[in-house]
Write a structure and sequence with these properties.
With 248 residues, this protein is of the alpha+beta class. The chain is built from nine helices and seven strands; from the N terminus they run E-E-H-E-E-E-E-E-H-H-H-H-H-H-H-H. The longest helix has 15 residues, at 232-246. Bound molecules: iron/sulfur cluster and FE2/S2 (inorganic) cluster.
């Protein structure tokens, strides 16, 4: 395939940034999107130009590091896949592909396509954990019966990889889908009940401090989420929040 890439280049957080055009040829449909960018970067390095900075780690859809906005969609045109799992066969020979970073005030650009998502880490630190006694006397989790429906819903919520596609997609830059997945994961299990009230209040408070917008029920986040996190989690988080606020 021969393609034209239009890529956001920005030297640092203060630089204004601009789209730069790069023609690329010899791209195989079986290559992943990131492998295609590797080819481009090798060419740029050979020419003595600065390679395009982009985030990646596992390249298996697990870590949540890859974070590209491709042709106006977070993680590109395919559904339920991350950028690293997106294949070039989803594009046509001769196509022009626009590649931008995940944009949100709470995700400032570090360089080119790399954004700072440490706001997610701070939300997680505010309550996305459980405190358990690990002295060796901990009750075996398998000895606590959990309804199948609840276990499945908790497992589905725990599939969130913290990529930030929900924020990048949302017209309000809301982080509600991410935070609600983290809140739900624990709220549904007995292990999470002990700290449930503080968790939801603290995580929502931190979410607001970080400057994420509110949810207006558009549902774009659910459509673009590579892990299929459901809007039902937002409804659950809202219920948990109201319950916690009223009993404080
Ligand atoms: S909810 Fe989905 S889109 Fe948002 S951070 Fe989690 S995995 Fe990514
Ligand atoms: S690089 Fe890990 S999810 Fe894409």
């Amino acid at each position: 395939m021969n393609l034209t890439l239009k890529i956001w280049r920005q030297k640092n957080a203060k630089d204004k940034g601009k789209m730069v055009e790069y023609p690329i040829s010899g791209i195989d449909g079986d290559m992943s999107f990131l492998e295609m960018l590797d080819v481009l970067n090798e060419e740029l390095i050979e020419k003595g130009d600065e390679p395009v900075a982009f985030d990646h780690d596992c390249r298996e859809g697990i870590c949540g590091m890859c974070s590209l906005y491709i042709n106006g969609e977070a993680h590109g045109p395919d559904r339920l896949v991350t950028t690293c799992q997106l294949h070039m066969r989803k594009f046509k020979d001769g196509e022009t592909i626009y590649i931008e970073p995940f944009r949100a005030n709470a995700f400032p650009v570090v360089k080119d396509l790399v954004v700072d998502r440490s706001s997610f880490d701070r939300i997680q630190h505010a309550g996305g954990y459980i405190s358990v006694n690990t002295s060796g006397n901990t009750q075996d989790a398998n000895s606590i019966p959990i309804e199948k429906e609840k276990a499945d819903a908790a497992f589905n919520a725990a599939a969130c990889i913290g990529c930030g596609a929900c924020v990048a997609t949302c017209k309000n830059s809301s982080a509600m889908l991410f935070v609600s997945a983290k809140v739900s994961q624990y709220a549904l299990l007995p292990q999470g009940e002990v700290e449930a009230k503080d968790r939801v209040l603290n995580m929502v408070h931190q979410m607001d401090l970080e400057g994420f917008g509110n949810c207006t029920n558009t549902g774009a986040c659910e459509v673009e989420c590579p892990k299929g996190i459901s809007l039902e989690n937002i409804a659950r988080m809202n219920r948990e929040y109201i319950k916690a606020s009223m009993s404080k």
